[in-house]
Amino acid sequence: MENRKLIIDYAEYDSLAELPNDARQLMERAMEAARNAYAPYSNFHVGAAVRLADNTIVIGNNQENLAYPSGLCGERVALFSASAQHPDQPVTALAVVGLHNGEYCEASPCGACRQVMIEYEQKYGREMTLLCYLAGGKIRQIRGAKSLLPFSFDTKL
Ligand code: THU
Q: Does 49 have pLDDT greater than 90?
């Protein structure tokens, strides 16, 4: 028997202004996208923006439905849309932000979105950088989705 530990490395920026230009631009696109979310049931709007290797930016936002499980998170709307439109372009970064009652707020990808992020990392053989907007306008930056969902589903087939 052996006890093992997992360590997650991440960085925190104090504000949007502190981010490198490409990361700040991506977060700003996610913030814009949050404004167009369709979230009449939760009233919690999520904006996401994906940067691809050729620097294309694809945005997404949560899309809800009266048949609740039919809705989809903003992150997956962005990732699936990017994959549908640019199947050969690796995803290099994903920015996520919440918007509630007109105020930007913290949002971090749910487990299902993390599973999807991991699969695109595997498909392209390349990690993505995740940027999450935090309370008070800070930004969390994590390199690679794998550490965010340890022991994720994998058939090894
Ligand atoms: N939501 C996202 O868009 N991303 C997440 O990572 C978690 C939750 C959405 C789903 C739903 O439309 C609303 O936020 C409230 O849960």
A: yes
The response to whether residue 144 sits with its C-beta less than 6 Å from ligand 1 reads: no
pLDDT at 141: 98
- Rounded distance from Cα 28 to ligand 1 centre (Å): 19
> Is the Cβ–Cβ distance between 73 and 39 less than 8 Å?
no
The Å distance, Cα 105 to ligand 1 centre, comes to 12
The yes-or-no answer on residue 103 being catalytic is no
The gap between the terminal CA atoms of the chain, to the nearest Å, is: 27
Are 150 and 6 within 8 A, CB to CB? yes
Predicted TM-score (pTM) of this structure? 0.97
| Cα→Cα distances 151→8, 12, 40, 95, Å | 14, 25, 34, 23
Centre of ligand 1 to C-alpha 1, Å, is 39
Whether 31 contacts 57, CB under 8 Å: no
Backbone phi, psi, residue 85, to 5°: -90, -30
> Shortest CA distance to 86 belongs to which of 113, 58, 114?
58
